[in-house]
Design brief:
single chain; two-stranded antiparallel ribbon; about 10% strand
Length: about 90
């Protein structure tokens, strides 16, 4: 029931959510001092919302307002390779 979501996105999101327990995701975010943030929430970054196909769910940690003008996002897999993890850490 989220506006602007296509059928393909809804299906992918539903599969991802059903693969893990939402309560577990929230617990894991809390454990690292983070929060889950949905596209429909008012705290969702407006600049990110304005891009084509914005992520519908963000894992955030810290204050998003500090990224109001310039930002970098790293998107990847939960099951990344050791090389992928190393490269993401270097970029970050």
């Amino acid at each position: 029931q989220i506006p602007h979501l296509g059928e393909k996105t809804v299906k992918a999101f539903s599969q991802a959510i059903s693969a893990t327990e939402p309560d577990e995701e929230i617990r894991l975010a809390d454990e690292i001092g983070g929060k889950l943030l949905m596209l429909t929430e008012p705290d969702y970054p407006s600049a990110l919302r304005a891009i084509p196909n914005p992520p519908h769910l963000l894992y955030k940690r810290g204050v998003l307002e500090t990224f109001a003008t310039n930002a970098v996002g790293i998107v990847g897999s939960r099951n990344c390779t050791p090389y992928g993890k190393k490269m993401a850490e270097k970029v970050a």
